[in-house]
Amino acid sequence: MSIKVKGLTKVYGSQRAVNDASFEVSRGEVVGLLGPNGAGKSTIMKILTCYIPPTSGYAEVNGYDIFEHQQDIRRILGYLPETNPVYTEMYVRENLEFYAGIHKIPNKRARIDQIIELTGLTAERHKKIGQLSKGYRQRVGIAQALIHSPEVLILDEPTSGLDPNQLVEIRQIIKEIGKDKTVILSTHIMQEVEAVCDRAIIIHKGNIVADDQTKNLRKKGQSMEEIFRELTK
Questions:
Q1: What is the domain extent for residue 50?
Q2: Sorting pLDDT into bands at 50, 70 and 90, what band is 10?
Q3: CATH of the domain at 125
Q4: So what's the pLDDT on residue 164?
């Protein structure tokens, strides 16, 4: 099992952002983490990436405990937060060289070439990131998260604000990545869940209200949007 979460709870003052969440994710599975704004999706992602600690509960990533092995988790995990952390004054290739250096990647040039091709950045590689469209900036963010060949990829709303063409392109990249990596992504776009995710975990007010294969959730003939609205109203 790639990710295990048991009884995860996070409390901010009087607000219970995540309440006793438990789930598991297997290698090669693309899982959509869904919920209204403030449901607890980003909090779970931040806990799994060791950015914040839980109030109680337990989680591990590829066998590494989030309390005891934070550096090991960061080494095997790629993370794209909701606010894309790109350096707009850097050129695309320069930016990836910087991140490759942080991760001490051998054969840096070959790996950067590979990631640029995978994420469709070939034509933009010599441009400054600040000159790119939002779609291409998102590609750079995904490239940063992938540069060190992580075993687990966590993407917080990776297609937010993209146009329909960009949506299709980024979704295809995620599907390709998900063939041999564990991917958790959050999104408000239900068509994206149907197009990309093998499984959906729906969160409402910090509680998991559904966790199943997308094909099973839709057995009653309802769309993912109808199921989401029914469970989170």
A1: 3-232
A2: very high
A3: 3.40.50.300
A4: 84
